Amino acid sequence: MANDLTRDSDRLLTEGRSLLRDNQAGGRFRRMPSRPIGRGSAELKAKHLANKLVQLAVGVVGVLAAASVVGGIIGGIGFWGVMCTVLAIAVVFGVVTRRKIKVPKIRDLNTGDVRHMVARTELWLESQRPALPAPAVTLVDQIGVQLDALGLQLEHIEPLHPAAVETRKLVGETLPGMIDAYRKIPAHLRSEPRAGGTPDEQLVESLGKISKEIDSVTRQLADGALDDLAIRTRYLDYRYGAEGTPEALPAPDPLEQLNRLPERDKQEF
Asked: Is the per-residue pLDDT at 22 higher than 50?
């Protein structure tokens, strides 16, 4: 009995220390509103908001139209009719505004085209931030910016290109799978050393490696565009001169000009 009480006390103390560290290090992130970490997730949220506004407008117009029809049939809706109309509008407003954007499932991240994959991954990462330690949240925000640049590069290569396939697996499977595995660990065990480091430290280290890999792949894919731009720049320098003025054209060949003249004009020569 005494041993059980001791174990329970130790467990409570461990959980208390973990909660205190979490609040000191990352509590501010949990009080902040969910902000987009990239352009893709921002576009999804903007689209969701636009749909809500349309639904709200349609609902309010529908309620007012119904009230007008009823009033026309019975010769006015009266005080209680007005109250019912206001209540109906309030219900529509409450139902529509409470609808939150649907967070994609992990299995749905690595599907569709590159643009949608990046947007879904960013949106999923945003939903995971409240459960992550502060250093990991910073890295997730950084990865969101990197995913925007990576998505632009992947749009210009073949979907079955080895680099595209491997990158999609890294972003759409490895990254979310690692965070999901971390979240399955009980909160009071995330700060306990295990296998060379705490789960918190291992998560931050892994996110740092993924961030570096995404940056490396983006730079490698961009090399082609950079080389193409350099070639075009050298061609312009060769064709028009280094300062942008056309080079002197070669003198025309008199015999070639004569051959281009009509037969009547040739006789005059």
From this structure: no
User: Which 3 state secondary structure label does DSSP give 21?
Assistant: helix
Distance CA 71, CA 65 (A): 10
pTM of the complete model? 0.64
Q: What is the DSSP letter of 194?
A: B
Helix (H) or strand (E) holding 254: helix 254-260
Q: How far apart are CA 26 and CA 47, in angstroms?
A: 30
User: In this predicted model, what pLDDT tens digit does every residue of 88-141 receive, in sequence order?
Assistant: 999 999 988 888 888 888 888 888 888 888 889 999 999 999 889 999 999 999
What is the residue type of 227? D
Q: Where are the domains of the chain?
A: 35-102, 105-239
pLDDT at 253: 55
Beta bridge partners of 194: 197
Q: CB under 8 Å to 123, separation ≥6 — which residues?
A: 40, 41, 44, 45, 101, 103, 104
Is the pLDDT at 40 greater than 80, yes or no? yes
Dihedral (CA of 14, 15, 21, 24) sign: negative
Measured between alpha carbons, how far is 106 from 103 in angstroms, rounded to an integer?
9
**Residue at token pair 């061609």:** 235
